[in-house]
Amino acid sequence: MNITWAILMLALGGVGVQQEHHQTEVAAVLQSASGIALQADQGFRGLGGASPAPSGSASAPAASPSASALPESPAPSGSPLPDASAPAASPGAAGAAVHTDPQPDAPKVKGIYVTAYSAGGSRMTTLLDLLDKTELNSMVIDIKDDAGYITYKTENPELQQMGNPQKFIGNINELMARLEKHNVYPIARIVVFKDTVLAKKHPELSFVKSDGSVWSNGGGDSFVNPYNEKVWKYNVEIAKEAVKLGFKEIQFDYVRFPEGFEKRADSLKYTKSDKSRTEVVSDFVQYAKKELTPLGARVSVDIFGYAASVPAAEGIGQDFVKISKNVDVISPMVYPSHYSTGWFNVKDPDKNPYATIKGSMVDTHKKLDPLGSYKPLIRPWIQDFTASWLGSGHYIKYGKQQVQDQIRALKEQNVDEFLLWNANNRYTAGVQY
């Protein structure tokens, strides 16, 4: 099945999402990479939030494979922010640029996603017990969530003014002490440009329609403008505070323009420059790394698993290689349920997690190996949920065997780290990690 057919199938049937982590971003990146118009990301949330009810055709595919893309050469960024064409690095003995890991003593991360609600509630006891009794050793915790809420009560007046801090995590310092007591490697998740809170509070930082209202997608989510450096600095300031609180790594998510942006770029009002969207997004990533590395924090970015196999998504501004060469860790989302018939010669990828993960890692290495010393640590998001929305005959119930099959495929491709995704933070028991 080629990319055009997959996109048409998506447009006609829709893709139901139960464990929603960027399900419709798949459609967005394929649309942007191929230039085919497609209504995507309508009504679905990203990494955070509870499981919505299935929607659309039960048998509609998630996406279809495409030829590999050639990376673009990034252009320099405007002063005073950095140039993404020059990877963030430290000078070597002879003055040559050499990538240095800000967390050289970090463990091999085997982690889980934790919502702010779980982190601040009774479920945290269960999750910590899971880590205590297994080889899992890390948590990715929402510090700025999909709506744009800072998830704890910050004392920083700038962050209070820009955002709308909540008390989802009642006592952030107590949480950090608890994580340290249990030897948990803490990663702060920050949703960057998908930010309804900031967009509504400061429309000048967002995309505005001709009637003066803030643009939102079919799900009611608004984005802020990646061209606006004030938005960059706001998110990096949140990241800096997270590091000061004790987080060892910052994981940026939704590092992109809105889905299908190329179709509305000329009709919306927003600040922009003559730089391409991929340049702007990559420049933000390098700016963030430049600011956070001196604090001893790793920088990681979530990105489509598909991005290793498709051309750069100009519409939403994501280029796998440009982003990867300016981070310490790249986390492609390679859930088998997000691939459709034809990927890696597998009829139903969700039913063959081993082959799907193996194929995705082969493509990822091919895409990133040319970066040489700038190749980031690959730490994929893998599936610990059942994709029942795919319809009878196209999915299987995920349990111990399916999770272990994914981990086995990663290890065989020399990928020793991973993150488990389950929107409700209910992870499979008895897995050998």
From TrEMBL:
Superkingdom of the source species: Bacteria
Name of the protein described by the UniProt record: GTP-binding protein
Pfam families: DUF4015
Region annotated Disordered, chain positions: 47-105
Cited SUPFAM superfamilies: (Trans)glycosidases
Compositional bias annotation for Low complexity: 50-72, 80-97
Domain DUF4015: 111-427
